[in-house]
Amino acid sequence: xxxxxxAQQLVExxxxxxxRDVRVIDVRGATSITDDMIIASGTSSRHVSAVADRLxxxxxxxxxxxxxxxxxxxxxxxxxxxxxxLVHVMLPETREHYQLEKLWSHAAGAxxxxxxxx
Length: 118
Description:
- By secondary structure, this protein is an alpha+beta fold.
- It has one domain (6-111): Beta Polymerase, domain 2.
- 45% of the residues lie in helices and 23% in strands.
- It contains 4 helices and 5 strands; from the N terminus they run αββαβββαα.
- It has helices at 6-16, 45-61, 92-98, 100-117, and strands at 20-26, 36-41, 68-70, 77-81, 85-90.
- Strands 1-2-5-4-3 form a 5-stranded mixed beta sheet, with helices on both faces.
- The longest helix has 18 residues, at 100-117.
């Protein structure tokens, strides 16, 4: 069996940490900063922080270090940069407010449509 992709590993850890509503968006056609945008929810600010900590620690044990982490202390929205994947762990109300899935899905879809026509 081939090795799991980075996104698959991240989703596996998020699932183990009981993150909710985990979504992976392929954004290669929309941006050069990353390949995948992964968005997940926590049930409270404490849970959001705990999910982020577990993700960072587990991936470090697997030899993958986070390049940057923002928002860890607050727990409303933690952004973790793994290079080829950006992970957003958010409170549900924060996630609803910013609607990243809609933003990135639209951008990736629009970019793919434009590149297919030319």
